Amino acid sequence: MNLTRSEFLQAGAATIAAAGLPAVSGGRTLILPFASAPYPHASRAQGHTYQGRLYDAATHYSNSDVGIFIPDGWQPRNGAVDFIVHFYGWNHDIAATFSTYRLREQVVASRRNAILVVPEGPTNAPDSGDGKLELDASGFQRFITDVAARLEQLQLSGTDRVGRIVLTAHSGGYGGAGGVLTRGGMNDSITDVILFDAAYGYFDAFADWARAPQHHLLSLFTGDTSTGNAALMGKVQEPTPNLYVRLADSMTLDQLQTRAPTFVLTSVAHDDLLQKYSWYSLFLQTTALDALAKR
């Protein structure tokens, strides 16, 4: 299939937009707008007020960009695209999330055969809402289908079929991840959910999803979310105990490679969890995602 002129220009514009990010070897970064991205959305049409300050819609809830990272050597698995979808926390955007937490570098280091997708949620606002992906019925299904179709259209994937999906969430990103599991319409495709100090709510959604034996919940937590993780543990192990609790300073990859729900306690600072010890990369290696083929 040949690109039309508009598709060629779109692909070029996406690369140019991504060029403002720090360079990363080992893959290609794109920034593309999607109508199915979290915002704009009616839930934040009047903005959002937190501690007496208004975060207006035009500044904080109008960006429909999505960051996409395709690792070198990535290939469709059985004719489908496997995805890692990350929901960032408060006071961030795509660029800050990529640069601060080194997500792209860690996907490369993990050697997972999957495409990383980071939708723009609230832009630099203290807010866990995630618009269409959190609140709209089948909103996540529309979104991930659109992403897969665009990658195929731009001749970057060779297929528009969606395969396995791993959800990762840091801090306030729980709103997006919990909403996806509640009403997103893709739970059968989601194999893994990884929470980085993100057990602030949606406990029933995470627990109900995690009870299926083919699903894997991994929750890293600090004292900030110890109460939330205790609540989640209680819900996950009903009606019988079936989970592991580990300490981060002694955990091993072998211990984490279980499909049973796993909770890991750490004293590492909340904002350092993903990148300080490259735990984002480590935890991706525990998922159902395949490794990249050896060259």
Topology record:
Layout: H1 5-18, E1 27-33, E2 48-50, E3 53-55, H2 57-60, E4 65-71, E5 81-87, H3 94-101, H4 103-110, E6 115-119, H5 131-135, H6 139-153, E7 162-170, H7 174-183, E8 190-196, H8 203-210, E9 216-221, H9 226-236, E10 244-247, H10 253-256, E11 262-265, H11 279-284
Helix pairs in contact: 7-8, 8-9
Structure explained in plain terms:
The protein has 295 residues and is of the alpha/beta class. The chain has one domain (5-284): Alpha/Beta hydrolase fold, catalytic domain (Rossmann fold, 3-Layer(aba) Sandwich), CATH 3.40.50. The protein is built from eleven helices and eleven strands. The strands form two sheets. The chain has a nine-stranded mixed β-sheet with strand order 1-4-6-5-7-8-9-11-10, sandwiched between helices. The model has no long low-confidence stretch (mean pLDDT 93).
